[in-house]
Amino acid sequence: MTKVKTEIKTLTGAQIFIECLKAEGVDVLFGYPGGVILHIYDELYKCEEIKHYLVRHEQGAIHAAEGYTRVTGRPGVALVTSGPGACNTITGLANAYYDGYPLVVFTGQVASTLIGGDAFQEADVVGITMPCCKHNYLVKDTKDLPRVIKEAFHIAMTGKPGPVVVDMPKDILTNKAEFIYPEKVKLPGYNPNYNGHPLQVAKALNLLCKAERPLIMCGGGVIAADASEELIKLAKALNIPVANTLMGTGGYPGTDELSLGLVGMHGNYWANLATANCDVLLAVGARFSDRVTGKLSKFCADAKVIHIDIDPCSISKNVPVDIPIVGDAKRVIADMLNIINTEEIQKKADKKAEWLHQINIWKQKRVKSPVKTEKMNPQTVIERIYELTKDKDAIICTEVGQHQMWTGLIYKFDKPRRFVTSGGLGTMGFGFPAAVGAKVACPDKPVINIAGDGSIQMNIQELGTCMQNNIGVKVFIINNGYLGMVRQWQERLFDKHYSHTHIESPDYVKLAEAYGATGIRVTKEEEIEAAVNRALETDGPVFVDFIVDSMEAVFPWVLAGEPICNVLMGKEGCEEIQGEYS
């Protein structure tokens, strides 16, 4: 039998770039053109398969790409030029790196012969991005471009996901080479482990079954691994309550009776108390950041800790672990489900019932109601947003600050990939461009960005991107006239010295209208429902400016350095419960 020889094409680097994206199934690209990547943009002009979205700032491109990947699970892709274009990606790269989301970011670079000569718009992209991405490349030969791009997508999506940067000199894009896209990736030094060790899995399950006060902590790794279904089955089978980190929101249904909601600095009182008093903690895909643990020496001091994580570097990094399991959360939990002994579970059912009863007692303790003022209460606004959108399968994005914490506490997410927020880096300005990417990915779902009047001004220019492409993001601004979270700290810890936290805003209604969008202002509680419904029913982007009370604070609140069981429940006092519950 005669073997048919495949015709090998000779293409420019720019043409190879486009063909590689097609081979990876990329159909959406967020970017901003510049001199050294104009050859790519010339090829995009002829390309119908890839839709390019012109952002207004390169940081917006990276956040939009991350919003896209957060709601789809597919890698987000961005393209920027050299020098300042590449430098403007750093915040977005760091955000995706800390929260563990896969991006492939392509940056232009000056010609190879000019590198190191202080050429116009030259920057050491590899050096600058090394600390804030999973891996990076400087392409030195056009023939290497297909291999590098194949590896970049593989690295971004496998193991613990993260951003990968590919820096492409101008001459690499103009030179020609034979185009052969590799079928496989060969990286001998990179081999993530997906299967948990069977003995460790069995040991962990045995410990959970024997526990009298077990707790599951759902981290962002549950969502990244698409392990929500397995986690639900495990919690139900063992009758174990589930608390979630900020990044794990939606990984376990927020309205389920076993859900304790958010844990940590601004976590629910009962979730924090359950964590402080559990005897076995199963953490799945969680980093144990300081916002979750509080004072480390007091965190789960009397509990056995089981930690499942795809990243071996995360295990025992902050919290000593008794049973480490390196592996993919979905596979590890599935292994646990396969070996569950129902008789053993039944024997321990009564003890777990006592534990759940105690948690229900803690749930009676509520944050003190805010004092009524002439202006709207911000929590009430978010509660109404939840009530009006909870049945619409909406995607909720946030910026960073008080509104973010209130959203995490109030909004009950029953599905993964519906809550898009910045966790590890805490990036103000993230939410709006991330919402743009989420809406591009899910055009048939309502996409709402709940913002503060400080955060929204950091990337407000992306309203231009929305208008040019008719991207119908709805922005609900919780406008209190302050950098609210910082002001809250100043009130409690700095004798009410509100140093440079009062912030003036533009007229958001006029600003929206100047872009050609719809603007709405709300000053009374009775106007909330009509405004939210009008926004949702309006085609195209909408800004809704909710004028709220300036001095509200987020509670519960665990002060930095305190144990998470030392919970401030209002401005007047705190509750502290340590050791075993009674």
Describe it for me?
By secondary structure, this protein is of the alpha/beta class. It folds into three domains: 171 residues, Thiamin diphosphate (ThDP)-binding fold, Pyr/PP domains (Rossmann fold, 3-Layer(aba) Sandwich), CATH 3.40.50.970; 165 residues, TPP-binding domain (Rossmann fold); 170 residues, Rossmann fold (3-Layer(aba) Sandwich). The strands form five sheets. It has a six-stranded parallel sheet with strand order 3-2-4-5-7-6, sandwiched between helices. Strands 11-10-9-12-13-14 form a six-stranded parallel sheet, with helices on both faces. Helix 1 packs across helix 2, helix 1 packs parallel to helix 7 and helix 11 runs parallel beside helix 14.
Summarize the structure.
36% of the residues lie in helices and 18% in strands. The protein is α/β, with parallel strands linked by helices.
